[in-house]
Every structure is written in C-alpha cells, then in structure tokens.
Amino acid sequence: MVPRPALGYAMVAVAAALFAVNGTVSKIILGSGIDSGQLTAVRCAGALLGLTVIAAIMRPASLRIRSDELPLLVALGVVGLALVQWSYFYAIHRVAIGIALVIQFVGPILVALWARFVYGERVRDRVWIALALALIGLVLIVELWQAGRPDSAGLAAAALAAITYAAYILLAERGVRRRDPISLSAWGFLFATLFWSLLAPWWRFPAGRVDDHVSLLGHLASSQLPIWALMSWMVLFGTIIPFVLIVGSLRHLSATRTGVTAMLEPVLAIVVAWAWLGESLDLTQLSGAAVTLAGISLAQTSR
Known about the structure:
This protein is mainly α. It has twelve helices and two strands, in the order ααααααααββαααα. Helix 1 (5-30) runs antiparallel to helix 9 (227-249), helix 2 (36-58) crosses helix 3 (70-94) and helix 3 (70-94) packs across helix 8.
C-alpha cells in the first residue's frame, strides 16, 4: 500500500474527535456507580464482539494467527488496550478530563524517546526542548505548589495512561506490518477482555444497573438516557471506530506523527467538557495545557 499522509491525518483527527466526546460519555457512566475496571471490561468485550463480526464478514481468513504473533498481540491487548483504558477511566473519574488528557498526551514524546534510545533512530535536538516544555506545562497543570492540587491518584493514573498510550502506538505500528487494522484490533481486544475478565469477573458486574436512566449532567442535566445506551455509544463510536482509525492511520504515518496528531483529543475534550459538563480550568492550568501541547507539537518534527 502506498502511504497517503493526508488520509492518515484525517483518520487520526476523526478518531480524536470521537475519543473526545467519549470522555464525557464515560464520565457520566462512571458517575452512575460502575467503576473503572467494570467499564473497561465492558468496553473491551463490546469492541471484541463488534470487531470480530466485522472481520468475519469482510475477511474471515484475516483472523488466523501464527504462534510467533502471540507475544505482540498479548502485549497490545494487555498493555496497549486494557491498561490504557483503565488508567484513563480512573483518571477522568478523579480529575478534570482536560487535565487527565493533557498528561496522557505526553505519550507521543515517549514514543520519540523510545525511537531514539531503543530503535536507534535519529531524533532531532528539538525533542529535548519539547520534553522540557511538556514537563514545565505539567507542573503548571497539577499546580504542585498548591495544597489543594488535583487528586494525586488521578494524576498518577493519567501518567500511567501516557506510558501505556505510547506502548499502544509502538505496538500497533509493528502489528500493522503483518495484518490489517480490524483483525489486529480484534485480537488485541480479545486479550484485553481476557485480562479484565480475571480482574473484574463478570459475575460481579452490576447488570441490574444497565437499565437505569441517568442524568446527562452539566448543561444537559434535565435529560436522561439508560446506561445501556451510553455504553453502546461508548463501544461503537468511542472504541471500535476510533481504534480502527488510529491503527489504520499507522499505514500512512509514523508512530510519532500519529501520536502527536492525536493530541487534538485533549483540546477537543476540554471544549466538550466545558460545553457539556461546565468543567473549567483556571488560568494557570490553561497556561500549563498550552505549554504542554506546544511541547508535544514540537515533538512532531523530532523523528
């Protein structure tokens, strides 16, 4: 396949928009009493079912795997899908979506660093400037000098999300060299589902709550939807479609460029959370977000 960068950037931009809206949808579900582990298990299982059906209809043979693929697929599922989703859900349940996402999107810089020191690729000097900007921005975002700074557990979860997000991009970049985005994602979600089935057994899932109607909160507080409807949106538009778009974009863009372009997500998520939930950041935190995003943008040219 001949790389088409413009198509790759468009795929990432659409995925970022869908992920941004999914952040608010997920926060509403978490507020209903379903915890981050249970929600991650539902998201992974739903994505597994949908992607497997799509692959079985379009290209059944693509679901076959070789034994030498298993290590990468297991790592993609557990680290790149299961843990990144759990850490993200846990973070947004305890801190503002904007703060969680800006921290998570230090991941692209970690990708560039991995390329330099592990893959031995040439990384331009500007990556170090980018890293410094990102770290300065993070200090401003979390307001380390404040006694009442954002929840420390939420911040730690956001940091874990950054590390696992970087791992997801790097693993997916390797995976698409051998197989198509849909089958790769399906196998990844299989191992993610198995992982969460052990940590959050299905018999403990509060199935009786899925029919409950919950407020959409914020400016839509007067409206209600059943939890199952929000979960369905999360699985289809917040998981299957954007994850396939991200993995597919790696056929047209490098891992670094895909990760950095996806930084549109925290910007869009802040706008969605402001317009929908009424979440806000003070001037210092907004300045920190701008500095961090500037660092991530600079990293785009580092590889």
